[in-house]
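On to our target:
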Amino acid sequence: ILVEMGLLYKDTSARYYTPTPRAAMLGSLFQPSPIRDGRLAMLTDRLVSQTGLGTGLMGMVGLNAQMYHWMEGLRPVPGTTPLHGGLQAELCDSAAGWLLLSTIEPERRDGMLRRLRAEAPADRKFNAADLNQRVHECELSGYAVGPAGFGTAAEMTAVLLPGKPSERPMVLGLVYQPCPEIESSALIALLQKSIQACIG
């Protein structure tokens, strides 16, 4: 049916399907303009070129942060599995997740943190008060520096993207192995300046 609707191409020899331009255009109709017109994709490319660091665009799916878009950098990211688009991780486990949690009203956020803690394995239980304080700091600053999450041992410097209240929050982050020549304050300034130039 999707082939007949013009949403998928069917490769008869290899027996697989690929999306058509119509599918991409249909999906983009319901997205914020920086995604619809490709500005965020170009921004991630530019940040990788400028910094050599892996760059991810992330959003919230239930109690998880999801990697919407990932561009590999020149520096390897340590971890059990390579980062890629579509990966999900609990909101409590990454700097991006903290920023996403900071967009939720406090009463609902408290319930989300309680559930995340209750469902966490014994060796990954977190102090809800400490995490709530960290999330509140993210709410005030609009940025976060902390674990990258998503199964990596790397660090992330991330900034919350501006958006209308009706839009789903998104985060742009740089992922790297901490070392003396990488300064998170410089990365925050670069991200903020780049986002301002891209989105306004």
